[in-house]
Amino acid sequence: MRLDLLAALSGAMIALQARANGELSDRLDNGLQAALVSFGSGLLIIFVITLFNRPIKDGIKNLRMAVAKKEIARWKLFAGALGGSFVAIQTQIVPLIGVAIYSVASIAGQTAMSLVVDRIGLTGGGKKLVSPRRVLAAILTVLAVLVSVWDRIDANNLSMVAVTAGGVAGAVVGVQRALNGQINEHSHQSFTTSLLNFMTGTAFLLILIVAGLILGRNELSPLPSGPWWIYTGGVIGVIYIAFTSTIVQHLGVLTFTLFSVGGQLVGSLIIDLVSPTDGVSVSAYLVTGIVMTYAGVVAGGVGHLRVKKPRQTS
Question: Shortest CA distance to 84 belongs to which of 258, 233, 260?
Fold first, then answer.
């Protein structure tokens, strides 16, 4: 299978994960617990893989040496907590607005945040100029969110709150990916970076749930008996990591992102057509918003120029 098609398929996996986690959250009536189940199952899978994978163990050693030499700050190793926050928001929002609108809002947040993290050089790969083309892309994707929910603004004010939360989730992912870039630079093993993310993300969610139980603001619910696919969030996450760690090396980050986002948008639209959440329908506004979002991603996918450092003269 062609790598560009695999990249698009990996994007569709993101939409599938959002649908599975959202349904689990709805049946549990507990978004945090659903997020913990998703992260915890992913952690279990990748931990078992680590036991039989020497390169991942070597990556852990590389990361320990980098921390000991102060080549990377310890706080950056907690990027997985941002991933936990993303899944927690995802499980709360998808049941309210559906996979498609959530995907549009999330991508808008990622695009806007990418302008910030690239400009300050948070990825560790050097600062990048905030070109007019990328600003235009960010504006276009935000407008796409407004268009996609235009027919719901008057009917349900909660939709706008939920869409805003989806944008925040996307922004969180933007920061997480930047920090993961630095972690991966020192671990030299993408699965080591993923293992660390699952560990810190699961711990973060567990702390939130325990705090909620102590304060009396959270109650654990018995896990539903089915359907089986609501428990696939963690598995999909592990498969997605395996896809990205291989494909990006051949296609490059830019090309992979374009195809991945395209797959995510198309996948989310198909999911909402075939198996929509209760009260969610696909309208012309939504389809137009998806097209605009994809156009914005394409528009901002070129011209990632680094800020040139001034030459030193003797």
Answer: 233
> Quick one: CA torsion of 244, 249, 251, 256, rounded to 10 degrees?
30
Contact by Cβ (8 Å): 87, 81: no
**193 close to 180: Cβ distance less than 8 angstroms:** yes
User: How many residues does the structure list for the chain?
Assistant: 314
Chain position carrying tokens 């990361």: 63
Is the four-CA dihedral 130, 131, 137, 140 of positive or negative sign? positive
Cross-strand pairs, 128: 306
* Nearest in space to 101 (alpha carbons), one of 234, 276, 297, 235: 276
Do 93 and 276 contact (CB within 8 A), yes or no? no
Tens of pLDDT, residues 185-238: 888 888 888 899 899 999 999 998 999 899 887 788 899 987 899 999 988 988
Q: Which residues contact 276 (CB under 8 A, 6 or more apart)?
A: 98, 282
Averaged pLDDT, 122-128: 62
Confidence check: pLDDT of 280 > 70 = no
Statement: residue 40 has pLDDT above 60: yes
Question: CB burial class (10 A; 0-12, 13-18, 19+) of residue 284?
Answer: exposed
**Tokens 């997480």, residue?**
176
- CA proximity to 137, closest of 17, 15, 252, 257: 257
Cα separation, 9 vs 25, in Å, equals: 24
User: With contact defined as beta carbons under 8 Å apart, do 158 and 92 qualify?
Assistant: no
What is the mean predicted confidence (pLDDT) over 73-82? 89
The two tokens of residue 242 are: 């395996």
pLDDT tens digit string along 144-156? Answer: 777 876 776 555 5
Instruction: Name the amino acid, one letter, at 8.
Output: A
Return the structure tokens found at 71: 């080549």
Identify residue 153 by its one-letter amino acid code: I
Residue 230: HSE in the Cβ half-sphere, 13 Å Cα cutoff: 20
Judge whether residue 306 has pLDDT over 80: no
Q: Is the pLDDT of residue 304 over 70?
A: no
**3-state SS, residue 13:** helix
